[in-house]
């Protein structure tokens, strides 16, 4: 009888330990305080996640479809669109372009951004006084109020120096008025108009900043349980004449059990 009770107790203990282990195994590192993230985790969230999506293209700028990567009017290279610049920077055989759109108004992106700054400045090894000073300067980003606005940032880069110069000049000279018919945010509730614009002005991390209203006809532009895609769309000169869009999946934009954008 005693051995049977021991067996039952032992089995119960093993099951409880197994459940505890399973719970820890399934726990996401994003559920932990952002101050506990390592460099890889913070970088992954900031650069490649549900809130940060990148589109990359290779080939001559003027003839490339910026959504499919296909090139018209020229023979495709082995990379599915790799041809000369046709007037680009000398020495660059195949220009490469990268665009990363981020929902910077979302809590996870701001948490990741601040955590990367912490790691770069060795925040964890700072004395308490220095940490407090850092928090006063940078930590305000974590607590920023985005209850009325949605901020989408667009980081862009190319290995073609001439194209990079042209893009820098273009993005730095735009305004909300000049972009009014060129930039939109599409959500399940409809087409959201651009509200404000901030040029990069040398900010190579965030890039251009596009601000949209958080409400549309009195309702949030994105709500829990929304189906479909969220699309950031831009058409710009001097590099392309077509629309370029970057899609986000709202079903994946849950952070600490809340929809965040």
Can you offer a commentary on this structure?
Helix 2 packs across helix 3. The chain has a 5-stranded antiparallel sheet. The chain has a 4-stranded antiparallel sheet with strand order 5-4-10-11, with no helix packed on it. It has a two-stranded antiparallel ribbon with strand order 8-9. It has 261 residues and is of the alpha+beta class. It is 27% helix and 24% strand. The protein has 2 domains: 28 residues; 228 residues, no CATH class.
List keywords for this structure.
261 residues; alpha+beta; 2 domains; 5-stranded antiparallel beta sheet; 5 helices; 27% helix; disordered N terminus
Give the arrangement of secondary structure elements:
Blueprint lengths: L1 H25 L12 H9 L4 E7 L37 E8 L3 H14 L7 H10 L11 E10 L2 H13 L9 E5 L2 E4 L2 E3 L9 E6 L1 E2 L2 E2 L9 E6 L7 E6 L5 E2 L2 E2 L2
Helix pairs in contact: 2-3
**Overall pLDDT, averaged?**
80
What is the ordering of alpha helices and beta strands?
A: HHEEHHEHEEEEEEEEEE
What proportion strand? Answer: 15-25%
> Count of helical segments?
5
Give the low-confidence spans.
1-26, 69-87
| Structural domains: how many | 2
Q: Indicate the structural class.
A: alpha+beta
Overall strand count: 13
From the N-terminal CA to the C-terminal CA, the straight-line distance is: 59 Å
Main sheet characteristics: 5 strands, antiparallel
Strand order of the largest sheet: 1-2-3-7-6
